[in-house]
Design goal:
Blueprint (H helix, E strand, L loop, with lengths): L4 E2 L12 H19 L2 E2 H11 L1 H10 L4 E6 L4 E6 L5 E4 L9 H9 L7 H11 L3 E6 L1 H12 L6
Parallel strand pairs: 1-2, 3-6
Antiparallel strand pairs: 3-4, 4-5
Length: 156
């Protein structure tokens, strides 16, 4: 990740007010900045760390070690798949801050002490850097996959 860093734009570091809105803005900024400059500025990385803390550190560790797979349906729907540290498949909708992992369940949904999990952040980091494999699937397969992932027994 060191080669992806520059020091350019100033980013406000106040993550206390409206944290989820700032987190969303930082994720959007992450994608735009890498698209524009092919790197992440030190200011952006500092803001991401300030907002996400240890979750961001864990996401950075996962970025190069766990591949991102982008499932793309013929209708254009997208679903990301990342591997957890125990090699369980984790599915993430790109524009929805949600993950079925235990950390998300307990620290984000129940305890409200984190904004997201490492899977969500690492997926966005890899997607922004175009570090993913694309798997084209049919609309029917996408529906079945989404149904299995999000409407299965044991759902949060």
């Amino acid at each position: 990740m060191d080669e992806l860093v520059s020091s350019q734009n100033q980013i406000p570091m106040d993550c206390s007010s409206s944290s989820s809105q700032l987190a969303k803005a930082l994720i959007e900024r992450l994608h735009q900045e890498y698209l524009d400059t092919n790197e992440f500025s030190l200011d952006l990385l500092a803001a991401l760390y300030h907002c996400f803390g240890n979750t961001f550190e864990r996401a950075l560790k996962q970025v190069d070690s766990k591949p991102l797979i982008l499932y793309k349906s013929t209708a254009g729907q997208q679903l990301w798949k990342v591997q957890s540290s125990d090699d369980t498949s984790i599915y993430i909708l790109p524009h929805v801050n949600f993950c079925k992992c235990e950390v998300y369940k307990y620290q984000v949904l129940q305890q409200n002490i984190e904004l997201t999990c490492k899977h969500y952040l690492s997926a966005h980091l890899n997607y922004a850097r175009k570090m993913y494999q694309v798997e084209q699937i049919s609309d029917k397969t996408m529906r079945e996959l989404l149904r299995t992932v999000y409407i299965s027994p044991g759902y949060v």
